[in-house]
Specification:
Layout: H1 5-23, H2 26-33, H3 38-61, H4 66-79, H5 82-85, H6 94-98, H7 104-137, H8 141-170, H9 176-206
Helix pairs in contact: 1-8, 1-9, 2-9, 3-4, 3-9, 4-7, 7-8, 8-9
């Protein structure tokens, strides 16, 4: 499989989402893209489906992909705002930990749950980094897609923060069309992230032969 297929999804998605945001009627598109809206719900479903698919693949192939299943599960939960549904406010924000009005016992419970998960993911990724780097050096398409996914996550998050940053530094509010464009890039872009995860999983699976020996990746 062509190793550039994953990275090419990033500019392709940006072009499509920009076109949608610039041409669609804001009153029609924005309700679809709003928080807890249909697009966000579909994104969560895709993340959960990806987590389940990776888990099944791990059981069948005995690979080291379990941390990615956990990450996909967490991403799906975040789309549903689970990270602050059971706490006073979002515990992923620094303000949560600095807020002295939030019960200390609540913070301890959050730490007791979050720290082991974060430690497991972090240590697993560190342990698997040499293998991942070796596969990237060999031109493995799955690693190129994973890198593109990480880059796209950063772009989407920057897009998400853009209206707040502009308002903070300039005091200006974006007009409705710009809001629609940025919302299109962010929300539809977020929906493409698990799709890229499925592509990477397919590429990884395709690189494994039945005997467990990896096939030579395409250099195209």
């Amino acid at each position: 499989m062509n190793r550039h297929s994953g990275p090419l999804l990033v500019p392709a998605t940006l072009l499509v989402t920009l076109a949608i945001g610039m041409t669609a009627t804001p009153s029609y598109l924005l309700p679809l893209l709003q928080e807890s809206g249909p697009v966000e719900g579909a994104t969560a479903v895709l993340w959960f489906a990806l987590a389940a698919s990776i888990f099944v693949f791990v059981l069948q192939k005995e690979t080291e992909l379990m941390p990615f299943a956990v990450l996909a599960l967490l991403a799906g939960g975040r789309e549903l705002d689970i990270h602050h549904r059971f706490t006073t406010e979002s515990f992923t924000k620094i303000s949560y930990w600095l807020n002295m009005g939030i019960p200390f016992t609540e913070k301890l419970i959050v730490l007791a749950i979050a720290l082991p998960i974060a430690a497991y993911i972090g240590l697993s990724l560190i342990r698997g980094w040499p293998r991942l780097r070796a596969r990237f050096a060999e031109g493995d398409p799955a690693t190129y897609t994973l890198l593109a996914l990480v880059v796209f996550v950063v772009l989407v998050k920057l897009t998400d923060a853009a209206p707040r940053n502009i308002r903070y530094f300039t005091g200006e509010h974006l007009n409705l069309r710009l809001q629609t464009v940025l919302a299109s890039v962010e929300e539809i872009g977020e929906m493409m992230l698990p799709a890229m995860g499925f592509l990477a999983l397919g590429q990884f699976s395709g690189a494994e032969t039945p005997s467990g020996v990896r096939a030579t990746p395409s250099k195209g």
